[in-house]
Structure formats: structure tokens, C-alpha cells
Amino acid sequence: MNSARSRWRAVLLRHESVLLALLLAEILFFNVAGARFGSLNNAFDIVRHSVEIGLLALVLTPIILTGGIDLSLGSLLGLCAILFGKMWRDGGMPIELAAGCTLGIGALAGALNAALIAGLRLPALIVTLGTYSLFRGLAEAITRGVDTFTNFPPVLLALGQERFAGLPAQGWAFALIAAVVWLLVHRTTSGRAWRAIGFAPEGARYAGLPVTRRIASAYVLAGTVAALAAIIYTARVGQAKADAGTGYELLAITAVVLGGTSIFGGIGTVHGTLLGVAAIAVLNNGLVHARQPREVAGMLTGALLLIALTLSAAARGLGSRRG
Amino acid sequence: MSGQAGLLTRHFREFAVAAVLGILLLVLAAFAPAFFEWQPLLSRMTREAPVLVVACGIAPILIARQIDISVGSIFGVCSVAAGLLATEGWPVVLVAGASISMGAVLGGINGGFVAGLRLPSIVVTLATMVVWREALRWWRQGEFVNLPAGAQWFGHSQVTGQLLLVGTAGAVLVVLAWAAKNLSAGRFVYASGSDAEAARLAGLRPQLVTFWTFVVAGALCGLAAMMNLVQSPQVDPKSGAGLELRAIAAAVVGGVAVSGGRGTMWGVFLGLALLACVNPALTYLHVHAFWEKAIQGVIILLAVAADVRATEARARVRR
Question: Cβ contacts of residue A85 below 8 Å, gap of 6+?
């Protein structure tokens, strides 16, 4: 039993160390190939451009650990960005209050997913496909597809564009959320419950875990953080449009799966997700600096995902044959 | 249980969707009779015909308890490739054959990863969706393909072309509906979707069944791409974006269960018809069209929530 566990740990360790090696290789390669890749400014640029997708990937990790999925996060980011702008400009709210309300709206939207998935036990894939359409549709309906919100006050723009204590300001927010999610997944009973549910939902129920509540908490957390990502997005870009965050959910899922989390649930780590986010962000930025077209980065990301999957399946097959 | 009652309970979902669709059509008939004018109605049906073909391709994958979100990208790649072949002067029949074969090959790649290597289909098709879409962007750089004059409507008049397309979609629907019910290959799909292990013990090969559902879906994407291509003088390299969600939504609304083993082609047709009527209903009833996506989302949620009671009833029966 003990040896089986240590073998699993070895496999997991291998996945993340391979990913780390890949990340270092990327950095080395682009340092040689790309002009101005290695500068501090560029490192900050990478952070600025990956925080929003990184946030979504972080909170997707617990969801995928439970064996669920959330396709609605990119749409929710768009809806929250719109409502944030709407409350500030048309509602006359101070920017801080509008930001607070936006977080509340994100939590509510997450609670809608949670009620349908955890409460009514509907398949997460289809529920979030529905809310994917619903949230984006609401954003489009509210703005009639054309309205954009601009001229945000400098205090907000500082969050997206300035430095705070030497780092890009949103980097601190990201670090905080990353620490919280890491602690939740790896050091609390919630984290254990998420994993257990992903391994065996019925087993977790019979073991007396509050399955409904634990699954619901993962989706509410995701909604809230998606709202935070919306605020940071608005601050970085300086405007809020209905199409904000289109396709982010797929990039976030890619980062999580690349980071070694099993799409069937039960297996995965937050640091793996962080490495996945970094690998994709460095690849995208590095290829631009190496004067490669942006599309190549997308293709390589997809190919990387397939390779990572095949390798982990091969490792799994090897493990099960031995055991 | 009499045969009549059995039909009603077994296909309760299809009847429910048909009833909702019927009510929507009645509302349209009462408030916006213009909706039923022949020419605009035919144009609308022609626009939805390729979507129906793709949805008919995705339904067997869902019934086999897999998913394919790369159909939109496969559609896009086939569209552009077929467009380029048409500009090279290939005859329409050969272009259609090439487009269908290309779709089948791309579907086979998905199927190979999912069935051969046993990887999760949602991640595999997520990856291939991104790879094909980005490859297409890189290849075309956003450039449209200008089709030769004879390609539009297969060189016939517009009405003939439209009738041809609607007829093709109808034929695909009827053939697949018949095959799913009457061919052993069709029953294999249901068997491997409801319980792969039981199907294996009964002597089927669920992995092979899965592989072929992906190939068929790819081929139908190629056909749909061809059906879309002849409707306009140009091919947009972005065509097919978001198609996967529309096709999956149609299937789910029509009662295809993502948990596998359940669903019919007629349901898919009704689901798509319902979704396709939302937009015109909004326009005719003077609700702004920007609400379309939100309302479609609500329809999907209602459809899946309606499944709760059905599944609970079934679970009780099993116990």
C-alpha cells in the first residue's frame, strides 16, 4: 500500500518536474533566440498578460479535482467586466464599491452553477455550456453589442498597469489568490474532500463528506475569482467590452490539464497548474519576441497538451501494469 | 404496456420539445405571420441545414458517452480546403468528396487519440480544436477564398440550390435516424454509451465503435462545410467558429444525454429547430436580437434541468 502510494507520488513528481524542465528550457531557448526576451520589463509583461488566465486556471483546479468542469468562466469574466463598468459609469458608484459589488455578482453567478451542478446534480459540462451562453448573452444584451466603458479613474488603472513594491500590481493579487487556493487544496479538509469526490463521488457520500456543499464551494469560489479577473482585465486594458475574456476558459483548462490535473478528477496539484500557466505564458511571449507569428504559439500549446496527455496516460499504463 | 403508451414514455422528451416548438410556431403564426412566407423561410432553413448535419454527426458521439468540441475547426479547415480546390477548377462532386474525406481523416485523428490511446475526449478535441483553428489562421492570415462563378448554388438557380441543400440535410437526418434504430452498428453506439463494460462482455468493441463515431462526425463536418460553401461567393477562414457549441446545444435540447446511451436524431432535429426559431421570434416580437444568446443559454439550462425528474424516475425504477 505504502509503496503504491510512493510510486504515485513519484509519477506526480515526475510530471511536474518534467513541466519545470520544459519551462526552464523555454526560458533558456527564448533568451538566446529572442531579442529583449530576458529583460526584467519583459518578465513583468509576461506576468501582466497571464494573470487573468492564471486566476481562472487556479480556481478551475478544485473544480476539475472534483471531476467537474466550468466552461462559463470566460463568459462570466465578460459579464462582470460589463457590469463593473455599468455600475461605475451609469450607476454612479465609487470605483471601490463597484468592484465590491462585481465580486458579489461573480459569487452569485458561481452560485447559479453550483445550485444546478451540486444541488440538482446535473452534468457540469452541459450546465456550464448553458451559462457560458447565458453570461455572454447577458453581456451582449446589456451593452447591445456596441457599448464600451472607458476613462476609468487612475486608481483602477494603477492595478493593471503600474508597479507596486517592485512588482506589477496585479501580480500581488495573483500571488495572494494562488497562496489561498494552494492552502485550500493541499492543507485543508476542503481540499481532501474535493479530491475524494473526484476519485469516487458515491464513496465520498457514503464516507459522510458533505459532497453537495464541497462541490458548491468550488464553483462559488470560481465565480468570485472570475469577477476579480474581470476587474484586473478592465484595469489592464483600460476598457470593458462585452467580448472580454472570450476563449479564456479553454486556455485555463489547457493550463490546468497541462499542469497534470486529471480531467476525470481526483488527481492534481495547484503548483502543477501554476507551472502550466507559466509554460503557456512564456511560450506565447517568447515566440512573439522570436518574431514568430502568434498562431504558432496557439498550435504549439495544443500540441503540448496532447503530448502531456499521452505521456501521462503512458505513465499511468506503466504504473497499473506494475501494480 | 401498450405500444402506444410505450412510445410516448420512451420518447417523452422529443414530444415535449415538439410541443414547445409547436407553441412557439403558433405564437409566431398569430403575431408574425410573415415568418411563414416561403422565400425567407426557405433561406432560414438553408442557413441551418449545415448546422443540422453537424449536430447529427455530434449526436452519436454524445450517445457513445464522448464529446467532440473540434467540429467547428474541422468545418473551418474543410471549408477553406474545399474552397481552394474549387478555385483550382475541380468539379463540384470531386470537391465535395475531398471535403468529406478530409473531414473523415480529421475526425479519425480525434478518434485515434480517444479510442486508441484512451485519452479523455474533451481534452483531446479541445487540443485539436485549437491546433486546427490556429493552423488555419496561420495559413490564411484572415484572407477569404474567392470562389469561381459556377460554384455558388452548385451552378443552379438560388431556389434550386436551396432546395438541394435542405433536401441533403433531410436525407442525412432520415438515413442516420433509420441507421440508429435499425442497423446493428447504430445499436452498438447506444450499447457502448450506456455501459461500455457490458457492451464489451457482450462481444462488442466499444473503442472501435467510439473511433467510428468520430470518423462519421468528421465526414459530416466535411459535408456540412461543402453545404455552407455553396451559399456564398467567398469562404471566410473563420467559418465554423462556435459551431460546436450550437451543435451540442441542439443535441442536448433535443434530449441527447451527455451521460451517454440516450437520444434520437429526431430529437436533435427538434432541438435545433427550437433554437433556430428563437432569433426570428425575437425579431418579429420586437425584442432586441442581442438577447438571443442569453435566451439560448436559458433554453439549454431548462432542457438539462428538465432531465432531473426523468433521471430520478429512472433511478427509482432501477432500485
Answer: A148, A149, A152, A234, A240
Record the cell numbers describing residue B303, joined without a space: 432542457
Distance from the B241 Cα atom to the nearest Cα atom in chain A, whole angstroms: 11
Give the residue on A whose Cα is nearest the Cα of B66: A125
* The three three-digit cell numbers of residue B15, written as one number: 414530444
Q: Contacts of residue A129 in chain B, CB cutoff 8 Å?
A: 245, 248-249, 252, 300
The residues near A279 (Cβ < 8 Å, ≥ 6 apart) are A19, A22, A23, A26, A255, A258, A304
Domain count, chain B: 1
Model confidence pLDDT, tens digit, residues B40-72? 899 999 999 999 999 999 999 999 999 999 999
> Is residue B236 included in any domain, yes or no?
yes
Q: How far apart are CA B300 and CA A130, in angstroms?
A: 5
What confidence score (pLDDT) does residue B233 get? Answer: 86
User: What's the pTM?
Assistant: 0.87
- The C-alpha atoms of residue A272 and residue A256 are separated, in whole angstroms, by 7
Query: Residue B235 in 3-state DSSP?
Result: strand
Whether B299 maps to a domain, the answer reads no
Cβ pair A116:B307 closer than 8 A: no
Contact B288 A313 (CB under 8 A): no
Position A316 scores a pLDDT of: 64
B290/A133 touch (CB, cutoff 8 Å), yes or no: no
DSSP letter assigned to residue B101: H
C-alpha cell at B111: 478518434
Beta bridge partners of B146: B234
Task: Give residue B5's pLDDT.
Answer: 57
Q: Which residue of A has its CA nearest to B245?
A: A129
Contact B112, A270 (CB under 8 A): no
Residue (of A78, A90, A88) closest to A134 by Cα position: A78
Q: Which residues pair with A149 in a beta bridge?
A: A240
Q: Which of A69, A134, A299 sits opposite B134 (nearest CB)?
A: A299
**CA A5 to each of CA A182, A197, A268: distance values in angstroms, whole numbers, following the listed order:** 21, 19, 14
- A interface with B, Cβ–Cβ < 8 A, is 69, 116, 120-123, 125-127, 129-138, 140-141, 144-145, 250, 253-254, 257, 263-264, 293, 295-296, 298-299, 301-303, 305-306, 309-310, 313
pLDDT for A245-281, tens place per residue? 988 988 899 899 989 898 888 999 999 999 999 999 9
In the predicted structure, residue A317 carries a pLDDT above the cut 80: no
Give domain status of residue B141, yes or no.
yes
Chain B environment of A120 (Cβ under 8 Å): 305, 308
- Establish if B2 belongs to a structural domain: no
Q: Which domain covers residue B229, as residue numbers?
A: 48-264
Q: Most confidently modeled of A108-112, A299-303, B113-117?
A: A108-112
